[in-house]
Design goal:
The complex is a heterodimer. By secondary structure, chain A is mostly helical. Helices cover about 75% and strands about 0% of the residues of chain A. Chain A has one domain. In chain A, strands 1-2 form a two-stranded antiparallel ribbon. In chain A, helix 2 crosses helix 3, helix 2 crosses helix 9 and helix 9 packs across helix 10. By secondary structure, chain B is an all-alpha fold. Chain B has a domain of about 240 residues. Chain B contains 14 helices and 4 strands. Chain B has a two-stranded antiparallel sheet with strand order 1-2. Chain B has a two-stranded antiparallel ribbon with strand order 3-4. In chain B, helix 2 packs across helix 11, helix 3 runs parallel beside helix 5 and helix 4 runs antiparallel to helix 9. The chains are: A mainly alpha, B mainly alpha. Chains A and B meet through helix 4, helix 9 and helix 11 of A and helix 5, helix 10 and helix 12 of B.
Chain lengths: ~290, ~350
């Protein structure tokens, strides 16, 4: 009984963390069609922003939920103005340019913070269920992810800004004809996407030892999740993160963490082979 | 565009041999060997991406797979001729299987990239976790993160004790690169190569003409992987150790960057990009002022923004604009040369 509860929490945590690391990319890649290979580095910088802010005496939750998204969002804004702006619609070029950016960020962070591991302690204590110890922070991540997904849904579905953003992503020429500036809207959406990446990196920072190259662990998983999810943002994220998180955790418990990771990747290859356009191109069509 | 060897090929051969003999006076052969090997690796992706239009994120997968094949086979067999052949064949076979799976599913661009990337990651994670005595193939322990050191290096075929290393190894690699270069040149002139370029230009049209696009793409993919395998067989001999780092994302990224910087759709570009950037990285590694990765990143961003076609096509078009005769005939010649792949190097 206790064990099944622990496993349930772990599975939920696996799903939530996948959805969390993919949310920013879902906006930047899923909506804007910019293959952002610097996504992992945005998350890494979110982590560093949090740790720096905490060391300066800011409350850890403020640092995570406000400082990190703002800092990374601003970095994203600069990047969009300088580089990405020139490359909309050129899929392969955005990929190469953002790969260059990711190397640039890794290099800069290495020069500023050094090539050593930094970390902060988890702000929430663990507790025990029967004979097992559960990390209380896992609940926080599940909670944050649910809030985040609900927030994105409400923002895109019900507000005017969300409507304009979605419309511009579909037909920027029509949006321009209606009097909106696609340039501004793309800029704002990229800011939003980068901020989401920063938030994800910040929330996950206490769980990992942060090094300048830690972005690399997220990027592949995030891409797989977003691409397997397909065209619908929220439904796609939930379905693909749900599937991959489940596969990962089941194999982790049954065999070992490495096999869990490999099983996730194999599942992704099979899924993409069967549904090359993603889950939501076949199921849940037309949902958000 | 005659199909037989023309003046351009003779010039390229003379140029190549001259370069092979002159370069050791400028750079030490130890460094040069690895530059040549990287050039070959760049060419392998240049072939399938630049001429076949297949963006493969997983060239490092073939690179790593070939390296491990060579190391395991060399330890078990105790000489190097058969392992070299295996290090070409195993990646080619693996690519054929992977390609057949992907191309029969009609996966294109991004999805192709993601699958090849994921396969690289799977191999990386797997080899990283193979520490411990239970993971071994024959006599060879896979060694996890530490990789496999101490295998039998390249020897004269049939004489396991006559090792080839140092300066002779450089000449072996350089000649191998020349052979591969002319193999690619020949391949692109055969009907197979021309149809591959046709597929890059318009896949639907070629398939409507009755060609089996899937089989042809798979074959080209396998050939590219085989060239990468040859490169890594030599690389393993140069480095004398193989590690999971060969499978890493950074490795894949570098190969793509070489192709972009050198110039896609040319044969000479990826070689130049690979050797040039690897040498630049080597030089940058000797100073501690600025981080190496930072500069690589800036170079890549700058190239995508300002010179998206790469160095060789830019230089070629500059050359034709400045010196070519402005006759209709000349113009036709120029455009066909550009389509075929431009540079006469």
């Amino acid at each position: 009984m206790d064990l099944s509860f622990v496993i349930l929490v772990e599975i939920l945590y696996g799903i939530a963390s996948l959805a969390l690391i993919s949310a920013g990319l879902a906006v930047v890649f899923g909506m804007m069609k910019v293959i952002n290979l610097a996504h992992g580095e945005f998350m890494m910088m979110g982590g560093y922003a949090t740790i720096t802010a905490v060391n300066l005496g800011v409350n850890v939750f403020v640092a995570m939920l406000i400082v990190a998204p703002l800092v990374v969002g601003l970095i994203g804004l600069v990047v969009e103005r300088l580089v990405i702006r020139h490359l909309y619609g050129r899929l392969v070029d955005t990929m190469l340019a953002t790969w260059g950016l990711s190397l640039f960020f890794v290099g800069s962070v290495t020069m500023i913070f050094g090539n050593t591991t930094t970390s902060i302690t988890t702000p929430i204590k663990g507790f025990s269920v029967g004979n097992y110890q559960i990390n209380g922070y896992n609940f926080f991540i599940i909670f944050i992810t649910i809030c985040l997904l609900a927030g994105i849904y409400v923002l895109l579905k019900t507000t005017r800004a969300g409507l304009i953003a979605r419309g511009t992503m579909q037909r920027s020429d029509i949006a321009a004809a209606l009097g909106y500036s696609p340039d501004r809207i793309y800029m704002a959406t990229f800011f939003f996407g980068s901020a989401l990446s920063g938030l994800a990196g910040a929330v996950l920072a206490p769980l990992v030892g942060l090094v300048p190259t830690s972005g690399g662990i997220y990027i592949a998983k995030a891409f797989i999740t977003v691409i397997a999810g397909g065209p619908s943002l929220i439904a796609g994220l939930i379905s693909s993160a749900g599937l991959f998180g489940l596969v990962n955790q089941v194999f982790t418990f049954a065999i070992s963490p490495v096999i869990g990771e490999v099983a996730l990747l194999v599942a992704a290859v099979i899924l993409l082979r069967l549904l090359p356009q993603g889950v939501t191109a076949r199921f849940f069509k037309g949902k958000m | 565009m005659s199909r037989t060897a023309g003046k351009g090929d003779v010039a390229a051969l003379i140029f190549g041999v001259a370069l092979m003999l002159i370069m050791p006076m400028l750079i030490s052969t130890y460094t040069l060997t690895v530059l040549v090997i990287y050039g070959m690796l760049g060419l392998s992706l240049g072939l399938i991406w630049g001429f076949g239009g297949i963006l493969c994120f997983g060239q490092a997968a073939f690179f790593g797979l070939g390296a491990y094949t060579y190391a395991v086979a060399a330890i078990n067999i105790g000489e190097s001729t058969l392992p070299m052949l295996l290090s070409i064949l195993v990646p080619a076979l693996f690519a054929a299987l992977l390609g057949a799976m992907m191309f029969c599913g009609r996966l294109t661009d991004v999805y192709l990239g993601v699958i090849t990337l994921v396969v690289t990651l799977i191999l990386f994670k797997f080899t990283n976790s193979t520490a411990g005595p239970q993971y071994k193939i024959g006599e060879a322990r896979l060694g996890g993160f530490n990789g496999i050191p101490g295998f039998h290096t390249l020897n004269v075929p049939g004489q396991p004790n006559a090792y080839i290393w140092g300066e002779p190894l450089y000449y072996v690699c350089a000649v191998a690169l020349l052979v591969v270069f002319f193999f690619v040149t020949w391949l692109l002139r055969t009907p197979f190569g021309r149809i591959a370029v046709g597929i890059r230009e318009n896949e639907t049209r070629v398939s409507l003409m009755g060609y089996d696009v899937r089989a042809r793409k798979t074959a080209l993919f396998a050939i590219g992987a085989g060239i990468a395998g040859l490169a890594v067989g030599l690389f393993a001999n140069w480095a004398e150790i193989v590690t999971p780092g060969l499978f890493s994302l950074g490795q894949s990224a570098e190969i793509i960057i070489w192709c972009i910087v050198g110039g896609l759709g040319t044969r000479f570009g990826p070689i130049l990009g690979a050797a040039g950037l690897a040498y630049l990285k080597f030089m940058l590694g000797q100073q501690t002022m600025v981080d190496n990765t930072l500069i690589t990143g800036i170079i890549l961003v700058m190239f995508v923004l300002f010179l998206p076609k790469g160095i060789v096509p830019a230089v070629t078009s500059l050359w034709t604009v400045s010196f070519a005769k402005r006759t209709p005939k000349g113009r036709r010649h120029r455009s066909s040369a550009r389509r075929r792949g431009g540079a006469h190097g």
